[in-house]
Amino acid sequence: MRVSAKLIAGVIAAIVAVAVIAAAVMWTVPVLKVRNFHVEGVHQLDPAQVEEASGVPKGENLLRVNAREAASGVAGLDWVDSATVSRDFPSTLTINVAEHKAVAFVKRDNKPYLIDDKGEEFTSAEPPAGAVEVTGSVDSGSPQTQDAVRAIAALSDDVRNQVAKLEVAGEYSLTFTTKDDRRVFWGASDSNDEDKAHAFATVLKMEGREWNISNPELVTTRG
Fold it and tell me: pLDDT by residue (tens digit) across 71-123?
């Protein structure tokens, strides 16, 4: 049985027309609704905060959700460094969040302002465990602040938990003070940070109140 080209063309046209009509109906009538939110990557934020910040209500037509706009709303939250939003058919909106990692903080007017691992201040809140107070020449995003957070990030968790603060006196002058009032001069943040971190861990096990580990191969002490 021979099928004419005209018949085949007609069938294809009919299929396309049905698909277009179906797509139009699904676009205008909320057949695929947002019934669930799946929030990933949050540690400091409540998932409910993230859902609200997206601006997408339950029952919204999933096809018509503006993912970029929703992500922008979530990114406006203080703790959010970046956010992406995607549709998981048939009924879920997935929001993936990357939070700021608070490694340090500064105090102004008796309020702590958190600093992330890029050296940027991002919110005023109670510092999480392991965040180190930074004093001295500290401006959000400045090279000195970036050096400070790199030095802090180089420390092991055990050492960081023994640190009370880090004084930034200049580009080449970082000094840690421990919770038992010992001072460790780090110097500049540079390619030797990892070796300095090892030296720091070592001197904390030794007698002495003041240490200079700016040259980790020639550690000196005073007092």
Answer: 999 999 999 999 999 999 999 999 999 999 999 999 998 899 999 999 999 99
For residue 183, the SS3 value is strand
Percent of the chain beyond pLDDT 70? 86
- The strand ranges marked E within 30-172 are 36-40, 80-88, 92-99, 102-108, 111-116, 121-124, 132-136, 163-170
What span, in angstroms and rounded, lies between the C-alpha atoms of 187 and 174?
5
Residues in Cβ contact with 165 at an 8 Å cutoff, skipping those fewer than 6 apart: 132, 133, 134, 135, 176, 177
The predicted pLDDT at position 25 comes to 45
Looking at residue 33, what DSSP letter applies? B
Q: Which residues make Cβ contacts (< 8 Å) with residue 152, sequence separation at least 6? A: 103, 104, 132, 160, 163, 166
The owner of tokens 């009370």 is: 164
Query: How many other C-beta atoms lie within 10 A of the C-beta of residue 133?
Result: 17
